[in-house]
Each structure stands twice: as structure tokens, then as C-alpha cells.
């Protein structure tokens, strides 16, 4: 039976990023890493109008720069140079600009397929073995690791298993790891749209009485739409003809980007705040959406996971003992606890604050947006949160 120092279960963006973060150190230490993924990556990147995308914070760019991957990613990354935040039908607005923060961009929007292709091509299969397509059907805890049973009938053993198989992790449930789940009573509709005017690197977050929406800039003058409303209303929007959908979107968003020209395939996702009650056990780490899944409107989920990836890689590479020792993994979890608490709280409270129809709260939050636009310290704090840098300074100050 094959034995590995580390098995990463889930070769998506988070799992592959961890493999890359460990790759050079693993080569120097002689570690054997296996990456187990259900879906085989394509042989080459295929451009698609309907490609799903992720918002990368400036902090995540810095992580990928340290890993040497940013030059490749940046070829298809659209810079967010300005974020416009507004509350529909009310006076409050705020604008965050990269120039004001002294950075080239507040963040970037990258197609998941392109980011995945960059990651997979950067992995050295002499250090990171692939089992793909393959799925772990069962995990058995051992005194010094785990035994994994795969759907092809094979087994392997590892010192440390990293569970990065997504928010609906069946293995997390199989292992008896409970989750705290809070439904938002909203679904998200995701689609790409083409505006009539050039987006010029502008991102828009617009809060309405029916739910928040975001339009993020993509290459080729497309925008990634995230539109959240009640499940019944989202199903109605999903079923509209393209022109009727664009007209309704235009009525809510307005004409800041001119007349909306085209919409692609529409996908719907239920929204919940999900947090695993255990992120580490002896010889086990839960990572990515399996550890915490956030509301997408603040764009914090993947970026928080990337900071977890960085912290876990640093802890493992600094270790001189068994990779699955509980004291080592608890140290990693303790290091990330404050970052996770602040980021989850920021995302959740922002969502709830703008979801309530209470008129007095509406006045208060609009005064807050107005103050945010007028008070440089408040604007800088908010911008650093959006860039994935705010929690870092607070943690370093502890």
C-alpha cells in the first residue's frame, strides 16, 4: 500500500494552491504528496463566455506572487481599480479607488478555469502525485495518519489528510465533523453580462430591498454578475428570456455602464453561512469551503481560504516532526482563528445590515456609507478589508 506524507483530498483551487505552496519545501525534504481530485483538468485552457470566475484580493495576489504564479495568472486577470458601493433608492454611496490606497488594483477577477490551469501546470508531478479522476469514498483514522479508500478499489495511507473537497463535503459528514449552518433565505444567481460601455475596471456593489448584487469586471469587457434574492424570485429570474432578464437587471442596476447588451448562462446557488466546528484533528485538517463557506457578495470566501493555505503551508514547512501531530495543527488553527472570526463577521454583518428593510436602519447605513466616503480613516479600513489586508494588521497587533 502506498504511503504519503500528505494527501490533499480535493484538487480544486484551494487544494491545488496548497500543493503548490508546499511543493518546493516538499522537494527539499523528500516529502511525498498526493492530490486526489474527482474531475480531471483539461489539457488546455478553453475560453468561454460563460466561465465562472473568482475575485482575488490584493492580498491573494501577494500570495501567488510569492509562489511565482502571478505572472501566469495576470495574463487573464482583470484589475479592479475602483469599487462603487451604493444603496438603491437612497443617498448613501462610497467609492474605493486603488490610487487612493497606493496599489495597482484593489483586487482582480479571474476565470476559475484559467486559475486552475495555471495551478495545475505549475505542479511538479515528481513531487505532487495526481490521482485523478478519483474520489475518496472512505477515511479510516490510524494511530499515525489515515487510510483512504478510493472509488477504483485502491487504498493509500498518509501522515496528514487535508480535506478540501468543498462546502458539501460528504467526507466531513462521514467523519462526524459537525457544522454550524445559517441560511440567508436567499439564493444567488450567477451569470456573465456584457455592458454597453467599457467597464474600465470598475466593480459595483449595490444593495437593494430585495437583496444585494455585484457586478465585477472581467476580460473582454464582460462583467460577472452575482444577484441575490429570495429563492422564489431567483427561480423566476432564471426562467426569463434573455431580453426580459436584462431589462429587469437594468431597472435594478441602472445605466452606469450603459445599456446591458448580453447575458450568458445563468446558474443558481443557495446561500448559507457554513462553519465546521472542527478544523483540525490529529492527522487531519479541514480547509476551504469545507471549513467555512461565506456569502459571496463581499468576495471574502476564497481569499480567506488562501490565507489559511499560506498559514498551513508555513506551519507544516516549519515542523521538524510528524506532519499530523495535533499540537502542530492546533497551532495553525489558533493562528488563523482571529482572521477567520473577523472575516466571517465582516461578511455576515455586511450582508445582514443591508438585507433589513427597517427604514431607521436604512438611514443609519446610508449615513455610514456617506461617512465612509468622507472620512479617510474609515475608508482606508474598509478598503483594507476588501483587499484582504485588514485582518493581517489587526492580527499582527495582537
TrEMBL record:
Alphabetical GO biological process terms: ubiquinone biosynthetic process
Keywords of the record: FAD, Flavoprotein, Monooxygenase, Oxidoreductase
Keyword Oxidoreductase in record: yes
Pathway noted in the entry: Cofactor biosynthesis; ubiquinone biosynthesis
EC identifiers of the protein: 1.14.13.-
Coiled coil residues, start to end: none
Family: Belongs to the UbiH/COQ6 family.
NCBIfam families: PRK05732.1 (NF004356), Ubi-OHases (TIGR01988), UbiH (TIGR01984)
Listed name of the protein: 2-octaprenyl-6-methoxyphenyl hydroxylase
Taxonomic classification: Bacteria, Pseudomonadati, Pseudomonadota, Gammaproteobacteria, Pseudomonadales
Originating gene: ubiH
